[in-house]
Each structure stands twice: as C-alpha cells, then as structure tokens.
Structures
1.
Amino acid sequence: MTRRLFLASPAALAAEAPRDDYPVLLQHAERAIPRFLEQPIRPDPDMGFADYRAAVSAVHYLLTLYSTRASRYFRDAAVLTALHEAIRFLASQQNPNGTIDLGFTNFDSPPDTGFAVRSLLPAYRIYRAAFGSDNPLGDSEAALRRFFLKGCDSMVEGGIHTPNHRWVVAAALAEAHTVFGEERYRRRAEEWLREGIDVTPEGE
C-alpha cells in the first residue's frame, strides 16, 4: 500500500496493509481521531454552510477505527457519539433525489455523491465485518445505509459534469454492488466503463 492510497482511504489498511506496516498505519490513522472528537461539524461562519466532505472524512475515520479491534478506539463511547453526529449531519446534506451538493458550485451532483459513497463504503464494510448481526450504531446505521442506497439510485439515473467523473461514479456503483448486491449498480457502472477513455489529438 502506498502512502497516497492510505491517506486517501485509511479504511483500506484493514485489507491491504502488510502485517509489518500495520501498526504504523494504524497509529497514523488514530492521530486523526482527536480532531473529529474536538471539532464538531458545523457551518463555516463566512460561507454559511458546512462542506459535506467534512462529514465524509469524519465518518470514514471514526467508523474505521471504531470497527478495528487493534485500535485503541475500538468500541470507544466518545467515537460512537461523534459518529452519530457526523452521520446525522451527512444525512442532512442529501437532497430528496439522493444527490448531494458541493458548496456553491455543483448542485444535485451525482459525481459528488459518488465521491462520498466511494469514500465511505470501505469503512461500512469493515463495520459490518467487525460486528455482524450486532449493531452498536443503531438507527445511525440505518441512516447511513439509506444515504448509500438513495445516493446510488441518483447515480444510476444521473449524469456527470466532466468526463473523468465517470470513473468515480463507476467505482462507487461497483463498490455498492459488492456490498448490496444490486444488479442495477453493476450494469450502470459497466455502461460508464464501456465509454472508454477520452484522448485529445495532443495525447491528453
């Protein structure tokens, strides 16, 4: 696992980190937790809103470490409280059609929904693997699941802003197909992949 991959997706450490690197990567991820516990997600006073990406980052780290037995934050009560708050905020950012907005630029955005879903599903898979039929998140797990399913529905139906967005939408839907087994997700991902790669005459 590269440093770039780990920083982008700390949940991947559970599946991909070599055993001798695992303690180092785990400690690195754990260093992020205090700021999520000390700084609740709230609207920026200058902008008047909070970026959904703050909630995605919080849920990703908190859920991964809460569900990792080797972590000092495994089943930590403070982490669980912060998870409830972060998931509640994340759900509040989802539009009725399942999409989310990026600040004041991308509205009703399937690609931004894809970035969120793709970032969160690995942590959700770790949570499910760790706890099985037990569900310490309670109603918050159901809220997170609804966020995924509504978001995936919006990606199945919606489009993209730029050509590169097809890859994140395809990746999110492929991951969701693995988790939820919904064939519509796989079929839509394959439709995007069949479009191939755009290359200009200059090779870009």
2.
Amino acid sequence: MDNPKISVIIPVYNGEQFIETAISSVINQTYTNYEIIVVNDGSVDNTREIVNKIALKNEKIKLINKENAGVSVARNIGMRETTGEYLTFLDADDKLECTALELMLKCIVSYDADICVAKVLPNISDDYTCLYTYEECIKLCIEDSPLIYACHGKLYKTQSLKDKNIEFPVGVQAHEDSYFVFNCFYNGLCMAWLNQELYWYNTEIANSLSRSSFSKKRFSIIDLAEKKRTLIKQKFPQFDSIVDNILIKAHMAFLGCFDIPSKYRYKEKTSLKYICKHKKNFIPATRYDKKLFFL
C-alpha cells in the first residue's frame, strides 16, 4: 500500500468564521491522497453554504448535514463514512501544519502502529520513546499525559478502530475525546510518538472556553474518570497502586471552574475530600499539574 488514502473528519457547529481556514489547511497538505469529510452538526449560521461553495471546486470534500446532536455523534458519523485506510480528526476552529498528513503517515507505517501521535502542545517534554505498547499507553492515561488529552493531532489506522468497534461515547459532554483515546489503548491498540508540532489550536477560542461559566457538563469529567478507573482495575491489576491518579486529575479539572453555583458546592467539597484523601497517589504530568494541585 504505497499511497493509502487518509480521511480527515471535521465536525463543525456554527463555524462560519473559521471552517474555511481548517479546510484550506488540508487542501494545502504535501500529501495529496486524502478525503475531507465535513459533518455539519445542525449549524444555524452560514457554515453549510461556505462548505458547499468550497466543495464545488474540490471533489475530495464531502459534506454531511445533520440535526444538532453533539460532537461525539458528528465524529462517529464521519468515521462511518470514511473510505480511507487511515483517518484523523480536525476541529473546525483549528488547522494542520502542511506536512502533517505526510509525516504522520510515514511514522505510523514505519512503526507498524495503530495510532501515530504528533506533538500538539509545545511544552510537551521531548524525552519520549518512539513506540508504546498498549500497556504503556494505559499507564500514560493514568498519568494523564498530554499525549492522550485529545483525539486530534493523531492518525489512526481505520481498520483497527473498526475491528474493535471503537467510537466516541454519546451523551457525554466533556472529555469525550480523551475517553475515545483511552478506549483505543484499552482495546489493545499501540501508538507511535512523532515529536513534531503538526496540529495548531485556535488558542483564542480555547482560552475563551477555559474561562466559560460553570456547566453541568463538568460532571462528565468525573463520571468518565470513574469508568476508566474501574476498567483498568479489572484488566490491569499491575496499576492498582497508581490508578487513583485518574480520579484525582478529574476532581482537579472539576475544581478548575471557580464559579461553581452554591447548589453544587457539595460536589466541590466531595472533590476536595477525594484529593486530600488520595494525595499520595498524585502523579504530575506537567508543571501546570503541580501548580494546580498546590492550589
């Protein structure tokens, strides 16, 4: 397979301000055997018209319009529509480095891996090995490594996902993508690490979201962490001594919202109690982790 097709899945909701930039970052790739699957999740702005206009000039673009049901459903639909041997996810407000597809493909093929993970955050440490077994990846999940934060910045072998029926959890409104990545490793997929920045966040959008007001969506963070912890204890007893770190990090993320309404203050107290009780099991993955844990 000398020139495999790569499917780029772009879920979008009301993305008229940035969807063209995201699509252009794929069109301008040095690797040209790709398809772009844009899943319009019930946008009420001009997203549909903008994508249609671009698609008329590029037969590699496929637009799927659906009623609004959330990003997980949109990504799952995109995965089911892929015709590529490999696939990757691109958020509509982000963009890819022009060599992203070419370099991730070389990496995943060279190491015969199921997933290639490229550098997304510039402050990630450089001292990583190149290939991880699925057990090593589970340990990274427990540590909450930046490598497994999100589904994007990664190239996946399509058949590996299909063989294990791996999709995004529906009905979950926060950290659904990190659970997707965890599920990949839990089902035995291995990853290769590519130490190059190939995925670019829209930091303005990301920062505005991080400052957004409290939402009950944050409860999903703890719910998913508890599910991960249960699954790991059942299948990977060798990690019993460190697995509590998953819930510590989840409670820290929940407490990261400082405007928790009074009716949910009991949740705040529960999170604080859990962190204090299990503080000996805390494993910092970044410098920010240490600062947040201290606070």
